[in-house]
Amino acid sequence: MLWSYYAYVFELCLFTLTNTLEKVAYLLVFHVCFVMFSWTYWKSIFTPPASPCKKFQLSYSDKQRYEFEERPDAQKQILVEIAKKLPIFSRAHSGAIRFCDRCQVLKPDRCHHCSVCETCVLKMDHHCPWVNNCVGFANYKFFLLFLAYSMVYCVFIAATVFQYFLKFWVGDLPNGPAKFHVLFLMFVALMFFVSLMFLFGYHCWLVSKNRSTLEAFTAPVFVSGPDRNGFNVGIRRNLQQVFGEDRRLWFIPVFTGQGNGHYFPLKNRSSESHNPLLANEDLWEESDDGSEGSLVEDHDPSVTIEMEE
After folding, report:
1. Sign of CA dihedral 116, 52, 63, 73
2. Which residue, of 95, 135, 175, 282, has the fewest CB within 10 Å?
3. Which residues are catalytic?
4. What Å distances lie between residue 38 and 42, 142, 146, CA to CA?
5. Tens of pLDDT along 41-85?
6. Which locations, inside or outside the cell, does it occupy (predicted)?
7. What's 308's DSSP letter?
């Protein structure tokens, strides 16, 4: 990233271009692209992954009961009592409610444990080595914008460098340090653009279907069985879940997504009828004093628990 800045600004614009108007225009547009590219990259890296709130964690007393209880059935019953109060609709492949034994939390819908970050991540998409961070509910918008602005950055560089690439290639411009930088800029910009184009296109498709990368490979399981489209509520609402309702903020790397990452509307609303309380997200929010709102209990004796890593 730093090399591309030096090569474009200094070697191309300042040392190679002779037309002042062209030089100013290139530098202005380049810096806009560079700022947005860097901003989204920074947000993708340094936005910590969101983890389940305390409502999904075992309290001290529940943890003590769970750890000191030696009978597996009794342990499951302890977890069942906690699960009855939470907005959980997805299941493990066995049909059991998902529990992370490492984090000691009941997993909200679309939540998974990341072995690299060593924590459960809300709406986990994947762990990305490019940003050395988990991509999930808290930073998925930033990651998408990072891919988009990276493509714009590469396209702009390739488009403006192309004519000078040809001139250096055929020998119309004298050999010098700028030649290597301009030629290499062209190759690198095109190479990254092609790879980013496929990755960005894939994630646009995922957003339109309201799926994560993990859900694209393994369909989420509900009481009625696996369903890849379980969270697909239409393209417009799918986009709003990630980018929010204010379209003016869609292309700015600030968090505007809907919800808190613990609850997601289902395509099949009948699934929520098993627990009428949890069908209304507004009933499950923080209270005015900053503490997490209480939940009215809804008993379901058929619920079971399965521990997952």
Report:
1. negative
2. 282
3. 128
4. 6, 11, 8
5. 999 999 998 999 988 988 888 888 878 877 877 777 777 777 788
6. Membrane
7. E
